[in-house]
Design brief:
Blueprint (H helix, E strand, L loop, with lengths): L6 H17 L3 E2 L3 E4 L8 E2 L8 E9 L6 E7 L3 E8 L2 E5 L6 H15 L21
Helix pairs in contact: 1-2
Length: 135
């Protein structure tokens, strides 16, 4: 796999948004890391220092009532797994990105959808496939 995204910078994008998410009543979980060098099955770790060769970073966020959730994972190869459970509907998106800054855009867009506040390029909770918004 080609490594194009600095996951440490991507983690900083998550960290910078944690206070706003919490203030909005969301329940963000710990930042998780996966180690490319680990034996299969690779475990998710919450301590960056135990990761030798990070290949993903992510965060799981729930609504205050724990009925809705979104899981956002960035892989070093430049794609994001975005999985949401909103209004009892599961949706998924996999945008491709080129930088940690673009990951910040994905985070903001996903949370805007999650909070049902425009603009929302995703259709979390929709019953049709989601469209791309970052090229």
């Amino acid at each position: 796999m080609d490594y194009i995204i600095d996951l440490n910078h991507a983690a900083a994008e998550i960290v910078s948004r944690l206070p706003a998410w919490t203030a909005a009543g969301l329940l963000p979980g710990p930042i998780t890391w996966r180690d490319e060098a680990a034996s299969w099955p690779q475990r998710l770790e919450v301590e960056r220092v135990v990761i030798t060769d990070p290949d993903s970073v992510g965060v799981f966020i729930q609504s205050a009532d724990e009925r809705n959730a979104v899981n956002i994972v960035l892989y070093q190869g430049g794609w994001v797994d975005l999985d949401g459970l909103v209004n009892d509907v599961i949706t998924a998106e996999c945008p491709k990105i080129k930088s940690a800054e673009e990951f910040g855009v994905v985070l903001d867009a996903a949370i805007a959808c999650f909070l049902d506040s425009p603009p929302c390029p995703f259709e979390l909770g929709a019953t049709r496939p989601l469209g791309r918004f970052v090229s």
